[in-house]
Amino acid sequence: MRSSAGVAREREAAVTALRGKKAVVTGGSRGIGRAVVQRLARDGAEVVFTYASNAGAAGKVEQAVKAAGGTAHAVRADLTEPGAAARLMETAAERLGVLDVLVNNAALEFVPTPLAELDDEVFDRVMAGNARTVFVTLRYAARHMPDGGRVVNISTINTVRSAPGIAPYAASKGAIEQLTLVAAQELGPRGITVNTVSPGATDTDLLRATNPAEALAVAASITPLRRLGEPSDVADVVAFLAGPGGRWVTGQNIRASGGLA
């Protein structure tokens, strides 16, 4: 049995795992992104995170992090715009000085649409907001991240459990998974790990806004753990990969899906 002193040491190690580290999280004002920002800050990192338009939600994240003793800075960025991701990384460098942890979580909201009804503009916009952003930020990491850094890219279980109407979204996330594999090979010699985390159905405002209650019940019922995921479930996996415990894990796609494959 562990002593109370041993438990206390473990807790202290958990909350200081990223002390002094500087992190960037794209899409950090809601849902999984918000949970990731709060968890990395709780572990000691100073975090720059992006939001698309909801300044109020971003401000609440900053306040919550500050109340918990951490530091987070919101940056507005429309990552579908050419040059936006590069400008974000420049802004983060000015604020943080160095990039130790990069979490690519931002994803363009997309209304499921059959292939026959999709136009080029929608496809290009989704690919730009999702895949191009990861490409640009990974390129920045390859050029500027110090040895021993961490990159985590958020994908989706939908790259292996597809569904009608999500072609641009699934394609963009599949591209992210391939970028992860290549970057892990290229950056590995410098001790930089690059991994993908693929959530299953996760209980966020967006999920509930875009799915009827019956669909959510079905999603929970077919998941081995018999529930929807919580944003913190995914954030904990990201924090592991971003911290010292993840030093020997790279080039992997971890399905944080409650066992759904």
Automatic annotation (TrEMBL):
InterPro entries in alphabetical order: KR_dom (IPR057326), NAD(P)-bd_dom_sf (IPR036291), SDR_fam (IPR002347)
Ranges where the Ketoreductase domain occurs: 21-215
Gene3D superfamilies the UniProt entry points to: NAD(P)-binding Rossmann-like Domain
Record's keyword annotation contains Oxidoreductase: yes
Coiled coil stretches, renumbered: none
Keywords: Oxidoreductase
Pfam family, one: adh_short_C2
Keyword Coiled coil included in the entry's annotation: no
Protein family (similarity comment): Belongs to the short-chain dehydrogenases/reductases (SDR) family.
Protein name, per record: SDR family oxidoreductase
